[in-house]
Design brief:
The chain is built from 14 helices and 18 strands. It is an alpha/beta fold. It has two domains: 296 residues, Aldolase class I (TIM Barrel), CATH 3.20.20; 133 residues, no CATH class. An eight-stranded parallel β-sheet has the order 3-11-10-8-7-6-5-4. A three-stranded antiparallel β-sheet has the order 9-13-12, with no helix packed on it. Helix 3 packs parallel to helix 4 and helix 6 packs parallel to helix 7.
């Protein structure tokens, strides 16, 4: 890249006002349990960008920087949920303080929460009260966070909703956000086909047919302009790697003020809290290794590395057949189900499949909420049952365990064995267990770690080095 080209790009890449302060248009993605924390967020803020720590049940560290074990002392799901919420508040306050100290007064500090996490509003309120003045903004997605603006206004912080379409933001605006315009810090457009973690694909969008984000963001900007949000930045999230690839978005009146959220690239930095085994695995990924799926207990689509963990879930969902409790139509073949061996009825073709699966060890049938059964090994069935019993209510609604965090505390549906305990696996991977045996969220561009010359010979930059690199366009 010539110096002239670099200078031209730098002129187009303008600072933006985020959460009340001018910063580089670079925002650290918040991600989930422990994958961003006070140290990483503080480093991004110190570099003049926006740092984001995860408010989703973060890890708590001792004075030597070692993550403390997360222990539960109660026995019921509701009581464990109360412990989980209290832990989330303690961790959030600790990470806010760390980020503030590390930032040296530079940049901005945000906390990222998921609207569908268990006790979300209580965690937000607890952290903002306990870390008063240390958090500049709240980023929130995974659902329709109508009350986000009201909570932000109560604590005088900016709010940054994550949406995946203009229609979603319009609904939020008309119902709630139009009442709190002064604290709307940005609107984060998260590409539902490219972002890592949970994705906001609607029922009308095809997961196999990615859409160009440009016209979708233009549509969002047009609506924002209609309601007087001309100067409110849009944050493009999902698919951001080299900003040179987005040069036509810069200084573009159709797009307006723009910043870019990086979720995947910050994983591979010195300050990133993820374990070395996870970082090493990132460097081996190939194009297509990240898989868009709907296994999550949230019910949302999500993008994760297609590792052993995901492949086992794929196998579960492929070994699925419908059943009837009485012989009917084509369902005439009896199959003994459960400890009492009471018969359920399958089609002759499905009975052949089930017999072949059993010969491979997948002999245990488990009912789903959809009048189907899946087939797993007896050991896997026992693990699924144990995980469901040990649920601590990490989501507002969980299809894996049928938990709900309010009212009667149940979704009213059967627990779904086609899913998994997301709390368990995310705690495992962030604490250093084998990445291929756990849910490994990543954006679809994660394969570029292996292709980008910047990371050749296993180079891992500091956050400051990464920010400086991104500002060049690469």
């Amino acid at each position: 890249m010539t110096a002239l080209a670099n200078a031209d790009f730098a002129r187009k890449l303008k600072p933006v006002i985020v959460s009340g302060k001018e910063v580089f248009p670079i925002i650290e993605g918040g991600k989930g349990i422990g994958a961003s924390n006070g140290f990483s967020a503080g480093a991004f803020a110190a570099a003049g960008a926006v740092g984001t720590f995860s408010g989703v049940n973060g890890l708590i560290y001792d004075e030597h920087g070692n993550a403390l074990p997360e222990e539960y002392h109660t026995t019921t799901r509701r009581d464990r949920h109360e412990e989980l919420v209290a832990h989330g508040i303690r961790a959030g306050i600790a990470h806010a303080k760390t980020a503030y100290e590390q930032s040296g007064g530079q940049g901005r500090i945000h906390m990222n929460v998921l609207w569908e996490m268990g006790g979300c509003e209580r965690v937000m309120e607890g952290v903002l009260e306990g870390a008063k003045g240390l958090v500049n903004g709240i980023t929130c997605g995974a659902g329709m966070p109508y009350r986000l603006s009201e909570i932000a206004a109560k604590h005088n912080v900016y709010y940054h909703p994550i949406i995946s379409s203009m229609r979603a933001f319009r609904a939020l605006w008309k119902r709630a956000y139009s009442k709190y315009t002064d604290l709307l810090g940005s609107v984060v457009y998260e590409d539902p086909w490219l972002a890592g973690g949970h994705n906001g694909l609607s029922n009308g969008e095809d997961p196999r047919r990615p859409e160009d984000p440009y016209p979708r963001v233009v549509e969002l900007r047009q609506f924002m302009n209609e309601v007087g949000l001309h100067h409110t930045p849009i944050v493009m999230a999902g698919g951001a790697w080299h900003l040179k690839d987005w040069e036509h978005w810069l200084d573009n009146p159709e797009i307006g003020p723009i910043a870019f959220q990086f979720g995947t690239r910050p994983l591979l930095t010195k300050e990133s809290p993820i374990p070395d085994k996870w970082k090493e695995r990132l460097m081996t990924l190939k194009k297509g290794d990240v898989f868009l799926n709907r296994f999550s207990p949230t019910g949302f689509y999500s993008s994760a590395v297609n590792n052993d963990f995901i492949q086992e879930l794929r196998g579960r969902n492929e070994r699925e057949v419908p059943f009837a409790t009485e012989p009917t139509g084509y369902m005439t073949e009896p199959y003994p189900f459960g400890p009492r061996k009471r018969p359920i009825y399958l089609t002759p073709d499905d009975k052949e499949k089930v017999d072949s699966w059993a010969s491979l060890g997948f002999s245990e049938a488990m009912k789903t909420p959809d009048e189907t059964v899946i087939f797993v090994t007896p050991q896997k069935a026992q693990q699924i049952h144990t995980d469901q019993v040990e649920c601590m209510g990490c989501l507002s609604h969980c299809r894996f365990s049928n938990w709900k965090d309010h009212d009667d505390y149940t979704t009213g549906k059967k627990a779904d064995p086609r899913s998994f305990c997301i709390q368990k696996t995310l705690q495992s991977i962030i604490r250093g267990d084998e990445p291929d045996d756990n849910l490994m969220f990543a954006g679809h561009n994660a394969y570029k770690f292996a292709e980008d010359p910047y990371y050749s010979n296993g180079f891992v930059p500091t956050v400051k080095e990464l920010v400086d690199r991104i500002l060049t366009g690469y």
